């Protein structure tokens, strides 16, 4: 695939919560044709802050006709990873509760992709043929 492009980047897929540094560390993780790239650091004994960009291509189904299309993903992520149940009140960051004190960036990418795929998506063909679609209210 694109091995030459990412050959010099060290990939982090999983890291134990206790091994996350308190100073910001750059990271890259790849999952299928999507990568997450950014920084992460521990901000408290049970919280890790992640600021990253999710980039790549993924297949998504049209909500009208069911046809699959490859779409480009370019999402900015602001995450707080909690080692266990999170009891705080945070509006700026998305909270992800981590199980077994193990941060798995593959799972985070997969979860974000599933969230994108669950959005209402209409393919190019259906957008062009919008007259054939009857709206329900």
Describe this structure in words.
- This protein is of the alpha+beta class.
- It has one domain (3-132).
- Helix content is 17%, strand content 44%.
- The chain has 3 helices and 7 strands.
- The protein has helices spanning 3-6, 105-118, 124-128, and strands at residues 14-16, 25-31, 34-44, 47-61, 68-83, 94-98, 102-104.
- Strands 2-3-4-5-6 form a 5-stranded mixed β-sheet. It has a two-stranded antiparallel sheet with strand order 1-7.
- Strand 4 and strand 5 form a beta hairpin.
- The N and C termini lie far apart (45 Å).
- Mean pLDDT is 85; it is low at 1-10.
Please name the defining characteristics of this protein.
137 residues; alpha+beta; five-stranded mixed β-sheet; two-stranded antiparallel ribbon; 3 helices; 7 strands; elongated; disordered N terminus
Class from helix and strand fractions: alpha+beta
Give the spatial strand order of the biggest sheet.
2-3-4-5-6
Share of helix among residues? 10-25%
Q: Which parts are unreliable, with pLDDT below 50 for 5 consecutive residues or more? A: 1-10
Radius of gyration: 18 Å
Largest sheet: 5 strands, mixed
Estimate the strand proportion.
35-45%
What's the number of extended β-strand segments? 7
